[in-house]
Write a structure and sequence with these properties.
The complex is a heterodimer.
Chain A (H helix, E strand, L loop, with lengths): L8 H10 L1 H10 L1 E4 L7 H21 L9 H10 L4 H28 L8 H23 L4 H15 L5 H9 L6 H33 L16 E4 H26 L22 H12 L3 E2 L2 E2 H17 L1 H4 L1 H4 L5 H23 L1
Antiparallel strand pairs in A: 1-2, 3-4
Helix pairs in contact in A: 3-5, 3-10, 4-5, 5-6, 5-10, 6-7, 6-9, 7-8, 11-12, 11-15
Chain B lengths: L1 H29 L4 H8 L3 H6 L3 H4 L5 H4 L8 H4 L13 H11 L2 H6 L8 H7 L16 H5 L16 H12 L2 H5 L9 H7 L1 H7 L8 H5 L19 H9 L2 H4 L8 H7 L1 H8 L8 H5 L12 H6 L3 H8 L2 H9 L3 H6 L30 H33 L5 H20 L5 H60 L1
Helix pairs in contact in B: 13-14, 18-19, 25-26, 25-27, 26-27
Classes of the chains: A mainly alpha, B mainly alpha.
Amino acid sequence: MDQRVPRSRWFTWLDQRLQLEDLLHFLRKKSVPRHRHSVWYYFGGVTLFLFLIQVVTGILLLLYYKGSEDLAFESIRFIMSKVEFGWLIRSIHSWSANLMILAALIHMFSVFFTRAYRFPRELTWLTGMLLFFLALGFGFSGYLLPWNELAFFATKVGTEIIGAVPGIGKPILEFLRGGSNVTGATLSRFFGFHAAVLPGVFTVILVAHLILVQRQGMSEPLGFQLQTENEAKTMPFFPNFLLRDLLLWLIVLNVLAILAVFFPWELGKKADPFASAPAGIQPEWYFLFMFQTLKLLPAKILAIDGEVVGIVAFGLAGILWTLVPFWDRKSSRGEQNRLLSYVGILVLMYIVVFTVLGYLM
Amino acid sequence: MTRITLARIVIAVFTLLLLSVIVNARSMAQQPTDQCLVCHESIGDKPSRLFKHDIHLKKGITCAGCHGGDSSKDDMELAMNAKAGFIGVPRGDRISEVCAHCHADVSTMKSFGSSLRTDEYQLLRGSVHGKYATEGKQRIAQCTTCHGAHGIVSPKDPSSSVYPTRVVAKCASCHSNAAYMQAYNPALPVDQLEKYRTSVHGEKNAHGDAKVAECASCHGSHDIRPAKDAKSSVYSVNIPQTCATCHADAAYMKPYGIPTDQYEKYAKSVHGIALLEKHDTGAPACNSCHGNHGATPPGVQSISKVCGTCHALNAELFASSSHKKVFDERKIPECESCHSNHLVEHATRSLLGVATGATCARCHTPQDNSHGYTVAKEMRSLMDSLSEVDSSAGSVLSQAEQKGMEVSEATFKLRDARQALMESRTVVHSFDFGKFKTVVDKGLSTATASREEGDRAIHEYYVRRIGLGIATLFMTFLAVSLFLVIRRMERKK
């Protein structure tokens, strides 16, 4: 029996050409599990929404931004003071970048704690982690673009840390900086990474990530399948879940507007490569826990530079974290892995404590 | 009765004299005879002739006190024997070491009843003269360089080479010798003595006044340091205090009949605050206006020249102004008439105009020289306007900045208005209303434009909030509608 409902002439016209009815059928069939952890499902959508805002505001900023040592700072000042709504676009771009990293972090930890990465979603987790690293790359490269004092010295310190990686550090440092120092060449490269390379790679991986999510559907928490049909509640993806997503996006958009108006992103002083570094140079908040750890490490650990030990440790931890679906066999078998939950809580507490310490010390 | 009393007094005095001669003869007999001096006197050499008047001999120090040996022996072999500690004529740094042997030792100096300082040798070593001479074997100056070797007398003794009236020549023996000074500091002038003799200090010193300043009064004696050394008494920041040592001492200066409040006034002046409180070494000290070695009060004619060495543009404008001729004719001191001398205050616009405290009104009244009166009044009014607009623009921009608005360009532009305000303070010395107005108008238009930009930014700040309010209302409406749609949809099912 055909379940199709009567449609308008416009819809029929489009349907005849694009087979929209099939798509709607697929969406309507798709359901989202409802349980006490359902709220975490929305953070993937929020991250996506913030990324879309980044794309739109980034394109608008590109209309006026000039990525050269002499003009970068002045062009941002021009955007903020002379371009109609330029201040709003720039502030939203900066705030949205930070909120996107925050949303991505929440999304990542929620997936980790609900074990949503387990079989068969290993590739979804992997693409998600890649997207997260690329988002950090967006943040790092975008931070330098206003060419202000804080960004200049933070980039100098940040690239120095990368340069301390044994073996490959130095060539990477020179590749990123376009020489041995942070100069106009670094700015041009970072601009290129930020506005061309990263968006291209990000979009491809994002599409792969979204296709995987659609193909595999929402992950159900452990024990959900054991429930009876009455207990295991679901919600149609379309339109119910999508409308809820839209509602949250509206709220996020409003929060962004409030932040942009009440706390406009400052421009600071123009970078002067010959000036001494001002006090209190810090990276963006999402790098702060690593920066603070490296600061607190002793100069030498077992005759090896403390900083090198720290960087290698963070690198290994990152790899281990990224590969969690492949070594957490217990969760893939549908068994509870409490130890991993404790590890996750410890990691989260460590990040929070060291970030707070970074701001206090 | 009177005769008997007189005879008694004469006998008593005579007895006392006799007793004192006996006691003195006995003490002379107890002192060992300086055999070195006996021999050297017999051959009539200069050192022995001078040493007879030396303060050291009077204190009982024999030739052996410095040269070593045994001065009680009349046998030359025994007296000048190395085993007896004979060192001969000390050379180089050994000279000062020999002097310091006693002069740096408190107990030795006390045993001679001396109250002299015992740190002179230490000070000398740290001084500019304590540096090594060009050949690198000895220090530039030894104790004997200034005090002499065999005829040393108290510095208070007019015959001393370091007595105030003679020390000038002693210093000049090196410092006026261009060939000698070239080896140490070719940039250092060698005309100090020549200039000093033209100064009030130098003139009085030449006439035997030992109270006026000579070289050591300002530079110190043993601890002389280069003028660029912050510890030097003639380092620019220390100069006012050095001069004030005498010039602020009312009792000391009484015979000269000049005021003693210069330091007090200077310390409160814009120059004094800059130099003494802010340690701005570019600010003038006493010597900047009065000269140093040729110190003298600047004459009426030269005041503007003296001030003009720093305030060049002001002096130039004044020199070409209509006031110059009048001031010259009436012998009115130029800069000083409006700005004072030692108590030069920060030149604010309150000096300009005809209000209370303004200097123009001292000569220009509505009755007498009314044109000048009107011009002064208008100039002040223009300057007040510029200052007010500048200040209000600054305040508006600061408010906008505090509200998070981007006004850096307008703030930067406002610097031009501040520059114009400063320029107007200089141009006022031309007393040309046209020139003055051009500068002020330029500043006024810049300051007005900056203020307008600040006002616009503040206005936009509120517009943004209103816009946000409307957007929030709209988004809230949408969100609530969406929520209701979702609820209705889920209830239906």
